[in-house]
Request: fold
Amino acid sequence: MSTFIRYLRMFLHTVDGRKRPIGYLSQYGDILRVSFDRDYIEDTQRPTLSLSYRGVDEAATRAILSAARDARLTRSDGRWPNYFQNLLPEGHNRERLAQERGCSTEDEFELLAAAGHDLMGALEVEPIPAREGIPDTVRLWHTAMGLDVLEPGFVEWPVEDAASIPGVVTKFSAVQEGRRYTVRRQGAAGSHILKLPSTRHPDLVANEYAGFQLARAVGLNCAQAELISRESADLPTHLPFEQILAVKRFDRLPDGRRVHMEEFVQVLDYPPQQKYGKGIFDDYSAILRVLDRLSADPARDVQEFVDRFVVFILIGNTDAHLKNWALIYPDGVEPVLAPVYDPVCITAFFDGVPPKDYGVNRAIDAKLKAFSWDDLSTLLKMAQVPRTSRLIQRARNTVKQAQETWPSLLEDAPSSMRKTVLERLQGGVALTQG
Reply:
């Protein structure tokens, strides 16, 4: 094994705009390690990085943050612990980031280092000059493990304008300048996400935009999104699409401050490839328990979650996996449910592709179509949330409101989406039958 160690300084931006150091990320051969600063570990008012690092009490939290062998802090297979793996992009976005860095798509240390200035939430990472030596926090752990660490290795500075935005759909981080959006940000963190259609589904962004409109019409808390022309976006390459979806990032404030957030795949400590989780009842009951017990506004967030789940069934959003549900930390410490994002009617794409395509989504759709009010009651009881009957009654009203307001809104949606959503509103799912 090489005796060189590479490391990154880890920061969390605070609500008052400070950039607080909280620890280090290091690589030694195939060992990737998260080491937290002692003052962060001992701070009872520490800003939250992830609920997966929070124990049942303060002593348990400190034990997690300072553990020697906890899988949330250390892995020896060349992969980051799950929280950090989920910061990295997927698909084309991952390939583009690897190309910008000149590294393999499997080199998770370099990928995170490349996009370190524009990550999801308030986290930022950057290298420290090797001449400063190996930080004690990093060196002492390796010494305790019997590892020979002789000298620090070189790490390049983050790639200018690179970003790591989780997800598969091709997207870019951009800043808004008047009515234009530019990806060449000269190192600034993006304030918007530009989402592109695909040659396979050229109506993808129109579909998602319509999903935002439908969700907002029944009172859901949604990210701000608008359709823009291709000419309004300063993209790095020419693309054969007329429309792009510009989504305002809710983890960025107008003055440039960052607001921390994390996806539920991180909260539940799942790796990215398990983003579809264990199933509706297991995962959604876990989410509901988190919202009920840990949210700064539990009653609102539990109701919002239930209403949102019902809406996703109605619009055929079979991709509401654990990377499409998130928490946001307005005060830096306590979470609330993040706004709706990625409300795509996936079922609208089923007819235009071979039957074997979208296999996971088709299986999920079969379950969602059959999901009944009794099933919802069972889910809420599993989660042990209060006021179950009230939650269900509110959700029933949401269905009625959708049936009344959506048909006119769907007139502007892609035809495939309009067809599938109207079918669901008119008895195509259990929630609208009788």
User: Anything to note?
Assistant: DSSP finds 14 helices and 15 strands in the chain.
